[in-house]
Amino acid sequence: MDVLGSLLDGFGNALTPANLLFAALGVLLGTAIGVLPGIGPAMAVALLLPVTYAFDPTGAFILFAGIYFGAMFGGSTTSILLNTPGESASVVAAIEGNPMARSGRGAQALAAAAIGHFVGGLIGVIGLVVLAPLIATVAVDIGAPDYLAVMVLAFVAVTSVLGSSRVRGFAALAIGLTIGLVGLDPLTGQARLTFGVPQLADGIDVVIVAVGLFAIGEALWVAAHLRRTAAAPIPVGRPWLSRDDLRRTWRPWLRGPFIGFPFGAIPAGGAEVPTFLSYVTERRLSEHPEEFGSGAIEGVAGPESAASASSAGTLATMLTLGLPTTAIAAVMLAAFQQYGIQPGPLLFTNEPELVWTLIASMFIGLVLLLALNLPLAPLWARLLRIPRPYLYAGILFFACIGAYAVSGQPIDLVVLLVIGGIGFLMRRYGLPVLPAIIGVILGPDAELQLRRALQIADGDWATLVSTPLSIAVYLLIVALLVVPFVRRRIIRGRDEEKKDLVGS
Questions:
Q1: What local confidence, expressed as pLDDT, does residue 422 receive?
Q2: CA distance 330 to 53
Q3: C-alpha–C-alpha distance, residues 105 and 377, integer Å
Q4: Are 268 and 449 in contact (CB under 8 A)?
């Protein structure tokens, strides 16, 4: 009852005109920032830190939270419409959302994403209110072997269900892991795959990789085939979800938060892993698995709901432990320290008004996000009516601007074009792009957790399967690899028996 009373007091503060203005401004800014590839919410909040120093802390954090949730949706908008993820967490949205847009269902894909963000964020913020202390306590007990096992699960789960063959999926994963190796070895300082270029010592930013493989690779692929196909404009489609769309999306909307929130709450979590796992889950549970890869709406609804819920999970760990699990959480932690406030177990006791007003403003921001973006879905979808030569020329321009904005180094543009060429070749030879992206995102983290686990255990490899969670995850990995093979053998055996019976 104390929690409910504190939350009601937070709503009383959040519904003041000034705080409502901060929430609306944050949502609008976040959506605009998410649309531009390379300019993520972490960079936006970092740039606004000096500007908001004179603000009231509560208003500033309401603004930052609005930017966070808004950017998650904005990134999925360009991911769906233009196959250009604005954020790494929006990569999965392009897999099914972009084919939907090309077939004239862009408005439906955007609506599914908007409602998914609302439902996922709503359940995630409720989880923040109710379960934050419990999730944070569990997160403290999770060790390096558990993190590594979860990341290996993400590798295997994604590569085993995408592409025309598992071999191509693992080949794409190997490409991503190789790109993730670029830079200095975190332990020895040895340069790896930098080819003598000092600017590559810090590695290649995942935004550059995502934009290169998706946007540049897609633009080059379209340019290579533009003269062979008619460049007819893509229809916008109806603005609302049909009854069949709602029947197929309500379960993914509800499943996504239960994948996204825990992963957002654990260190080294973030929105990338749960969106991948949500996509795999929806593909396996769907009544229409044959539509995946060509525009299955479940593949948009589930991952987007998981991404939004993971944002709430990230804030849960940051507020209750003072432990940032993503770049935006790290910047917000710096903002708290700028105001002389230390997030952690005592934050709810020392700054209850700020915390509960911030949590209440998240509910308000989600409603504003849905109210602003759901009616705009057909308008956003009209971007697809632009003739393809102009459209992809614009995509190349903004992709280069976004890549240059990451660090301001001209070498980033060269890297972008090289990775774009790799993306073009992957399309040419049928390699799925998603395993490469997950390899880049999780590869360095998996290496770090592997080394950390072995260091703690003095090189004993048995430590990798020394905890109940890691054992359970590896058993699940074995099941993912073995069950489809066994199922095919059983089906093949039954078919041979039928042939023998018919022959006799």
A1: 92
A2: 17
A3: 11
A4: yes
Residues 6 or more apart in contact with residue 271 via CB below 8 angstroms: 72, 88, 89, 260, 263, 264, 306, 307, 310, 311, 314, 326
Given CA atoms 72, 74, 80, 83 in this order, what sign does their dihedral have? negative
- Domain residues for the domain of 77 are 2-466
Q: Structure pTM? A: 0.67
Number of Cβ atoms within 10 Å of the Cβ of 165: 12
Residue 208 lies in a domain: yes
Non-local CB neighbours of 273 within 8 Å, separated by 6+ positions: 150, 151, 154, 263, 442
- Give the distance, in angstroms, between the CA of residue 63 and the centroid of all CA atoms in the same chain: 21
Question: For the chain, how are helix, strand and coil distributed in percent, rounded to 5?
Answer: 80, 0, 20
Residue 504 falls inside a structural domain:
no
- Counting residues of the chain whose pLDDT is more than 90, the rounded percentage is 2
Q: Which helix (H) or strand (E) holds 183?
A: strand 183-184
Q: Residue 234 pLDDT more than 60?
A: no
CB 116 within 8 A of CB 360: no
* Separation of alpha carbons 130 and 238, rounded Å: 38
DSSP 232: P
Does residue 471 belong to any structural domain of this protein? no
Largest CA distance in the chain: 88
Alpha carbons 436 and 212: distance in angstroms, whole number: 12
Q: Could you give the count of Cα atoms lying within 13 Å of 328 in the half-sphere of its Cβ? A: 31
- Residue 444: is its pLDDT beyond 80? yes
Tell me the residue length of the chain. 504
Residue 351: which residues within 8 A CB-CB, separation 6 or more?
341
Q: Scanning the structure block, which residue is given the tokens 């950390």?
A: 452
The 8-class DSSP code of residue 40 comes to -
| Cβ neighbours for 16, distance < 8 A, ≥ 6 positions apart | none
Q: What distance in Å separates the CA atoms of residue 257 and residue 253, rounded to the nearest whole number?
A: 8
Domain total in the chain: 1
The amino acid sitting at 74 is: G
Decide if 113 contacts 72 (C-beta within 8 A).
no
Would you state the structure tokens that stand for residue 25, as one six-digit string? Answer: 């401004």
Long-range contacts (CB closer than 8 Å, 24 or more residues apart) made by 338-342:
338/49, 338/53, 339/57, 339/60, 341/57
Please check whether residue 502 lies inside any domain of the structure: no
Q: What is the DSSP string of 208-254?
A: HHHHIIIIIHHHHHHHHHTTTS--PPPP---SS--HHHHHHHHHHHH
Q: Give me the phi and psi of 184, to 5 degrees please.
A: -90, 140
Q: Tell me: pLDDT of 168 over 80.
A: yes
Q: What separation in angstroms does the CA of 310 have from each of 72, 262, 347?
A: 10, 7, 21
- The answer to whether the CB of 423 falls within 8 A of the CB of 217 is yes
CB atoms within 10 A of CB 143: 17
